[in-house]
Design brief:
By secondary structure, the protein is mostly beta strands. The protein contains one helix and six strands, in the order βββαβββ. It has one domain (2-79). A four-stranded antiparallel sheet has the order 2-1-5-6, with no helix packed on it. It has a two-stranded antiparallel sheet with strand order 3-4.
């Protein structure tokens, strides 16, 4: 189970800029249906970041860290 999601820009935790935490626990009926498990119903999340200061065409990396209820992080990297 995930407790929260932290987002960093252009570097991993400890190096990149902390952008904030995502709103977690949003309803995802499609995920619950896909896995055939109602426990996944509230597995969705939402995160908004104003990227208007980015130079058009520039490449940035977003590092997403889900934090489990056990206090463990796992890195998910996204390039955009």
């Amino acid at each position: 189970m995930i407790k929260l999601l932290c987002h960093y820009l252009n570097g991993p935790k400890g190096f990149g800029k902390l952008l904030g935490e995502a709103k977690y626990g949003l309803e995802r009926q499609d995920v619950a249906d896909a896995f055939g498990n109602p426990n996944y119903l509230n597995s969705g999340y939402s995160f908004t970041y104003d990227a208007s200061s980015f130079e058009p065409g520039s490449l940035h990396s977003f590092y997403v860290y889900p934090l489990s209820l056990k206090g463990e992080y796992q890195l998910i990297k996204v390039n955009r």
